[in-house]
Design brief:
By secondary structure, the protein is of the alpha+beta class. 16% of the residues lie in helices and 36% in strands. Strands 1, 2, 4, 7 and 9 form a five-stranded antiparallel sheet that branches. Strands 3-8-5-6 form a four-stranded antiparallel sheet, with no helix packed on it.
């Protein structure tokens, strides 16, 4: 590939990254009276079954989950959440994990702020499934919403090696 083509590709990639950094965000779900909910099993440190969070065919653009907004929580606990693009994910279908410690619900929810996250890219019309486990016994639940941002592909995508990095 000639130098001019490489420089042009780099400039296009810089433009794509700039657009992705400054593109608008969307909230999911769009209904103000609807939240997403994950419920941990009663057993300590045991994952729940996979739960559909964003149905297949709802988001018609490639996207990232860039934020999680806790909206309600049953009890103070530490939660571990995994997200994937399938209800029976292979290693390529996992898009991210997060761990959050929720204090007293009344205090936390009064000072609520979105958790900024960086999840893997999700193809257009793909759904998202999630599962959760908690540090305490009791089967506690958490309600939340997502912040979504458009995913724009650059010309050379660099994949991460298997964990650990």
């Amino acid at each position: 590939m000639g130098t001019n083509k490489r420089v042009k590709r780099i400039l296009v990639d810089i433009g794509v990254l700039d657009h992705a950094e400054h593109s608008r965000q969307r909230v999911y779900p769009q209904e103000a009276n609807v939240e997403l909910r994950l419920t941990a099993p009663a057993a300590v440190n045991t994952f729940s079954a996979w739960t559909a969070l964003i149905p297949v065919g709802v988001v018609h653009i490639p996207y990232h989950i860039t934020g999680l907004v806790p909206e309600n929580v049953e009890a103070a606990d530490t939660f571990f959440i995994e997200l994937a693009t399938s209800a029976t994910p292979t290693s390529d279908e996992y898009i991210g994990q997060l761990r959050l410690r929720m204090g007293d619900p009344a205090i936390y929810l009064a000072t609520m702020a979105p958790l900024l996250v960086k999840m893997g890219e999700i193809e257009k019309d793909y759904g998202v499934w999630g599962r959760i486990k908690a540090a305490s016994a009791g089967g506690f639940w958490i309600d939340f919403s997502f912040i979504l941002t458009v995913w724009l592909q650059v010309s050379t995508h660099i994949t991460l090696e298997e964990f650990p990095w």
